[in-house]
Amino acid sequence: MQCDYHDAGRCRSCTLMNTAHAVQLADKTATVQSVLHRHTPGTTWLPPVTSPESHFRNKAKLVVGGRATNPTLGILDRAGRGQDLRRCGLYEPGLAATFDPLHRFLSDLALEPYDVPRRRGELKHVIVTHSPDGEHLVRFVVRSGASVDRLREALPELLRLLPSARVVTANVLPEHKAVLEGDLEVPLTEQTLLPMRLGEVTLLLGPRAFFQTNTHVARALYAQAGVWADALAPAGVLDLYCGVGGFALHLAASGRRVLGIETSAEAVAAATAAVAMLAGDVGPVEFVVGDAAGDLPDDPGLVVVNPPRRGIGPDLAHRLDRSPAAHLVYSSCNPDSLERDLEAMPSWRVVEARVVDMFPQTRHVEVVLLLERA
């Protein structure tokens, strides 16, 4: 992949831009296998889940800089000045197509971009998610309620310029913090959930929902878990850190009970709403708000964990090590924390493993494992 921004030194986010994609994938595979080597003797390594090397990102987190009547949408340089990256080649074409209409909208609205060095201004970020059906979730991160009111008044113009915007919200972040968003989310449209159709399963994303940034790879990741589950035919599936139900909804099947546990009430509500959209005859599917490290069911069957970068931690690892579950699917975005968790679960053996190239052009790598009792 060639990038004018990288060549000009305006953006260095893609640290592997000058490395051939095949070499990137080989290096990532070698890194994962090296980190996990003590836990994978006899493990079958399946071919990596590959991604297109460009135009794969379904979500853009754009820092707003520049001037109120001509803002930049992209990143800030080391001096805190805005660098416009609207032609970045990482984004899906349907996502990239939203950037110019959003730029026109913001130029006319003339909200002052937040100046990080001077700690003044209103508009901090624009966050856009693109669905496979060409619809969008658009979030504006602003500093005050006055900006929320201006965005609400201007909503008809935004929808005229960007009719694919199904969900629009304003997030209020008044503090000077190195974070993406604040605690207050204000819906501006009646619709608050973006459908993400992945084959026969449709997930529903709220403004704060987590979803894999690479839709192509997400489909393959869920499909791999489905292949394992169908081969094992468990009576039940327990999905911990279930989020909006990505794994749980893909593993629903006739005669199989599925339970998802998640700390976010918003995510649980969205996952519950998506159950009604499942096609075919499936067993009971339930989502509850709870702590993944809490008490486990007496017979969880197949357990799925998809934790944040810190991993599942020693408490849950010890619980899973002592649980009666026969099989475990672990989807990890951090091989180092995964290795620590495996060390804390000596009664499990890794049967199959697969590297997942979610983020080409970077060193970030993911891996999904199938484990059984040793």
Strand tally: 17
SS class: alpha/beta
- The rough form would be described as globular
Radius of gyration: 22 Å
Strand proportion, as a percent range, falls in: 25-35%
Number of domains: 2
Helix/strand order: HHEEEEHHEEHEEEEHEHEHEEHEHEE
- Side by side, the strands of the main sheet go 1-16-17-15-14-11-12-13
**What is the CATH class designation of the largest domain?**
Alpha Beta
Q: Fraction of residues in helices?
A: 25-40%
- The overall pLDDT average reads 96
CATH homology superfamily of the largest domain: Vaccinia Virus protein VP39
SS summary, helix count: 10
Task: Describe the 3D structure.
The protein has helices at 4-7, 21-35, 93-96, 99-109, 145-161, 215-232, 246-251, 265-275, 313-322, 335-343; strands at residues 44-45, 59-67, 70-76, 82-84, 123-130, 136-142, 165-172, 184-187, 194-198, 201-205, 236-240, 257-262, 285-289, 302-305, 327-332, 348-356, 366-373. With 374 residues, it is α/β, with parallel strands linked by helices. The chain has two domains: 4-53 and 214-373, Rossmann fold, CATH 3.40.50.150; 59-191, OB fold (Dihydrolipoamide Acetyltransferase, E2P) (Beta Barrel). Helix 4 crosses helix 5 (145-161). The two termini are 43 Å apart.
